[in-house]
Amino acid sequence: MIGRYRLLPLAFGAAILATSAAAQDTAVIAEGRAVLEERCSRCHAIDRTGESPHAEAPAFRTLSERYPVSALQEALAEGIVTGHPDMPEFVAEPVQIAAIIAYLESIQTH
């Protein structure tokens, strides 16, 4: 009997860690969306639905149809300077890059 009761705190602790990790993931994804809202939503559809305001700007939910979303890490770090004609240069910090990638992965349609 004593062995079972000793495992309860471990199971409870694991549940707290899993909940904390999920909350952290949610916060990171929300931060990625916030960055994209500020910097990209003027031209791109940044959510799971909706059309891009700029006809030549792809909806972010379809990026994985072109290449793996994780492949954007280097481009975001170096500065994206190509895209649609009106696209401004965009350079992100490492923490922002991780958040952007997490958000983009969370909205892909496939």
TrEMBL record:
| Domain spans labelled Cytochrome c | 27-108
Q: Indicate the secretion signal residues.
A: 1-23
Reply yes or no: does the keyword Lipid metabolism apply.
no
Keywords from the named record:
Heme, Iron, Metal-binding, Signal
Species name for this entry?
Aurantimonas aggregata
Q: For this protein, what is any one GO molecular function term?
A: heme binding
Q: Is Lipid biosynthesis included in the keywords of this UniProt record?
A: no
Protein name stated in the entry: C-type cytochrome
Q: Where are the transmembrane segments?
A: none
This protein's source sits in the domain of life called Bacteria
